[in-house]
């Protein structure tokens, strides 16, 4: 086992990618490691030609992944849009891993991201000694992706300012990046493209300009359609993360996953699963990703402080932290939910007590 905390997808799933490549005799766009059909199999799961089982990376609508893969086979950039927790970053990473074998050309967009982090920077020691020169230029992931014909990932595109976002327009339109200081430009090689992710639920979001939106094909990733699908997604990711962290997964983990997701889905939708009771909704998104983080935190607490036994007490504090983002409004929402819903559910009596204790 590697001593690294997390490996990129192309290393974690190297066996699956190699198995798909061995039997992949279909046509490929220039610069691609796998054909579009093989990329789709890698994302949705299936079987390679030699019988190797390919685990599903995305559980959801096949048509969405077909559209995403087909978009990247053109010269149009891809924007994965959705609320937090819809696997946008996960899909982005695995697309890059399957298509180019390199998911590490990543720019994490923030309010502090500037043009130098998007286009290129300078080694100031070299710049002062020799002036602007190719040796003094420091390439960004976007620059390297253009140079090598690979995919560049832009995470949380709407987090950075609109003026910085618009530096992408020339790159996406002309497939070139001017380098004014050297009176030259870099032109993208075949295989280059951009995968961006964005959501419109968090504070601090900057709207994309109309000009930039036109350069992207947008694929909206929805939350899981039903309870069973979300339980399957969360269970798989929790097991994978527990294995990486060397945390034991107790036999009752599936039951507690279902209970956590029941609470999250009811508060998120503003109604109980049977539709009989209307509820107030908290300010947070209570996404699938937050449910995964909540359960992994509970497994850690169970492993280190409760001899591996996972109960409501190990999960309650994390659930409260996920629900209560606004200490006044969200606390009232959770307290009302406990009294009107959980208090009356026999199987949730331990949860009712643990959550009341944790608030």
How would you summarize what this structure contains?
The protein is of the alpha/beta class. The protein is globular and about 70 Å long.
Question: Biggest sheet, in brief?
Answer: 5 strands, parallel
CATH class of the largest domain: Alpha Beta
DSSP strand tally: 11
Radius of gyration: 23 Å
Domains, number:
2
Please write the string of helix (H) and strand (E) elements. Answer: HHHEEHEHEHEHEHEHHEEEHEHHHHHH
> What strand line-up does the widest sheet have?
4-7-10-3-11
> What's the assembly state of these chains?
single chain
Give the helix tally: 17
Query: What coarse outline follows from CA principal-axis ratios?
Result: globular
Terminal CA distance reads: 39 Å
Whole-number average pLDDT? 92
User: If classified by CATH, what would the architecture of the largest domain be?
Assistant: 3-Layer(aba) Sandwich
Tell me what portion of residues adopts beta-strand conformation: 5-15%
Written account of the structure:
The chain is of the alpha/beta class. It folds into two domains: 9-220, P-loop containing nucleotide triphosphate hydrolases (Rossmann fold, 3-Layer(aba) Sandwich); 227-358. The chain is 47% helix and 12% strand. It contains 17 helices and eleven strands. It has helices at residues 9-12, 14-22, 36-44, 62-72, 88-100, 115-118, 124-130, 141-148, 162-165, 168-174, 210-213, 227-244, 253-269, 288-305, 312-323, 329-340, 349-358, and strands at residues 46-47, 53-54, 77-81, 106-108, 120-122, 137-139, 151-155, 176-179, 184-187, 193-198, 216-220. It has a five-stranded parallel sheet with strand order 4-7-10-3-11. Strands 1-2 form a two-stranded antiparallel sheet. A hairpin with a 4-residue loop joins β8 (176-179) and β9 (184-187). α3 packs antiparallel against α4 (62-72). The longest helix is centred in the middle third of the chain and has 18 residues, at 227-244.
């Amino acid at each position: 086992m590697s001593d690294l905390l997390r490996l990129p997808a192309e290393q974690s799933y190297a066996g699956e990618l190699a198995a798909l490549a061995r039997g992949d005799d279909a046509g490929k766009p220039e610069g691609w490691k796998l054909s579009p059909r093989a990329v789709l199999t890698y994302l949705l799961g299936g079987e390679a030609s030699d019988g190797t089982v390919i685990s599903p990376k995305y559980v959801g609508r096949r048509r969405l992944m077909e559209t995403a893969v087909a978009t990247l086979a053109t010269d149009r950039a891809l924007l994965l849009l959705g609320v937090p927790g819809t696997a946008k970053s996960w899909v982005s990473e695995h697309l890059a891993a399957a298509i180019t074998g390199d998911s590490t050309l990543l720019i994490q967009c923030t309010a502090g991201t500037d043009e130098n982090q998007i286009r290129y920077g300078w080694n100031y020691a070299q710049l002062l000694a020799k002036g602007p020169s190719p040796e003094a230029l420091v390439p960004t992931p976007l620059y390297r992706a253009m140079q090598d014909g690979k995919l560049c990932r832009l995470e949380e595109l709407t987090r950075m300012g609109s003026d910085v976002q618009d530096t992408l327009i020339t790159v996406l339109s002309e497939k070139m990046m001017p380098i004014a200081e050297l009176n030259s430009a870099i032109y993208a090689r075949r295989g280059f493209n951009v995968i961006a992710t964005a959501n419109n639920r968090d504070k601090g979001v900057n709207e994309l300009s109309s000009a930039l939106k036109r350069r992207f094909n947008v694929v909206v990733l929805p939350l899981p359609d039903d309870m069973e699908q979300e339980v399957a997604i969360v269970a798989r990711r929790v097991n994978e993360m527990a294995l990486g962290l060397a945390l034991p997964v107790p036999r009752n983990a599936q039951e507690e996953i279902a209970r956590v997701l029941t609470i999250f889905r009811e508060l998120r939708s503003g109604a109980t699963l049977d539709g009989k009771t209307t509820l107030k909704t908290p300010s947070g998104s209570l996404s699938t990703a937050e449910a995964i983080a909540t359960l992994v935190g509970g497994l850690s607490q169970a492993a280190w402080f409760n001899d591996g036994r996972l109960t409501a007490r190990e999960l309650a504090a994390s659930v409260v932290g996920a629900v209560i983002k606004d200490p006044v409004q969200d606390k009232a929402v959770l307290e009302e939910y406990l009294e009107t819903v959980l208090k009356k559910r026999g199987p949730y009596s331990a949860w009712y007590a643990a959550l009341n204790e944790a608030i």
